[in-house]
Description:
The protein is α+β, with helices and mostly antiparallel strands. The protein folds into two domains: about 5-165, no CATH class; about 230-360 and about 370-435, no CATH class.
Amino acid sequence: MGASESLVLPLPSATLVFGMEWLPLLGGRAQRLGLRLARRHRATHMVLAGESAGSVGVAALKTGRAQRKAGLHSAAQNVAQLFSTGTIVLLLDMGQAGCWLVAVHEGAVVARTDRLYASPDDALPVLAELRQAYPQLVLLGDPRAPEAPSLAAIEAASSPYSRLHALSRWRPVLPWPVQSFALALVLVLLLPRLWPLLRPPPGAPARKAATDPRQAWRLAVEHSAQGLFVHGVQGTRALFDTFYGLPVGVGGWVLRQAECGAQLLQWRCQAHYERRGAAASNSRFLAAAPGNWAVDFVSLDQARAAWSLPSSAAPLLALRLNTSSHNERELFSSLQAIRPAFGQMQVGKPEPLPVSVPRDAQGRPLPRPPGAPLYFSRLVQLGGPLRSGGLLLPHTASVAWSKARLTLHQVEQPGLKNSSLSLSLQGVLYEVEIHPEPGGRAAAASPAADAQALS
């Protein structure tokens, strides 16, 4: 695979590689087999998402020193991490670079995809072949299909599992034990003679590699937030609309409970129904069920419906977050005003996102420079009537939900804090803290703006 067939695209938080060659892996020892295939294809880089990976990506790249230092990530593997189940294909407009096509089957990039084409029409024959090979193929962005991720979402999904590893082109002729013995012998014989030449003269200052603390901390903070998404108002509204539109009765079956779990760019939902009445049957339930449901009859009297929907989540790095002090003053005051409409409302203390403290050339930790932002999160738990969700919606701009549950039960005396349709939510609220300048106070600025100020 020539370097001209791949596209190396530097982005704010990661450098993505498009147009890699993907080879299927069969059997165990994925690392060893992947390395063997990469060398057979004369690749300079490879990407392998663990020992259980179903495919390996290889490429022959000509990268500069800055790119090698920053690290490269496979765009196709990022998409595979976003859609780890099922079979999907993505057609992404890359502007002047053309149209990018990638297909993923059960978390593994499909061979002969991850290709750049001059126009979408050039990619249609490949798409037709994929539909024949995978009848259950879903084209992202189609009606009733999950929303196609943007380039920013693909960038934010970068992780150690999508990072490219450079391969050494040198192949040893002698076994490793023989190499070790020979190297030790050479060092014993030559080091005493070479040491006077290599030792710096007395009084000569040691050279220290210059490290920019502001740039190092900016990259460390951005890395801590990679792969994190926020549902915000739009994503929360999509979740509520799903619950609002859920039928309470389907062909004589009655809703008991529904829940949705967040999976990056989509919600995975399921609803549990109970058979009521002699006329209720499986056939009646299937006839009345929405077309996007996958129905499973757990028993003669219980049915489970599963479906997915786009979460409309945005990368955390793309948002403008408020500081903890701002939220405690403004947001929490707003939540206190709607607190009577909820049976439960808990917001935890801010906890910093884990950050690998950058170090200088001597391995010493770099102090956090003034103006450097850090991300924080607070656990959020709420419970109350489904109708109270509308009051909460305007205050969810910086919230990422992990689980939502709707329960239908009998209430003797419905009131402000309880009803027959009960909603419970679990998630996190994201915030940012700015390290104050000497003698000054931290400003309530957005992390995006402060991250740019550090560069």
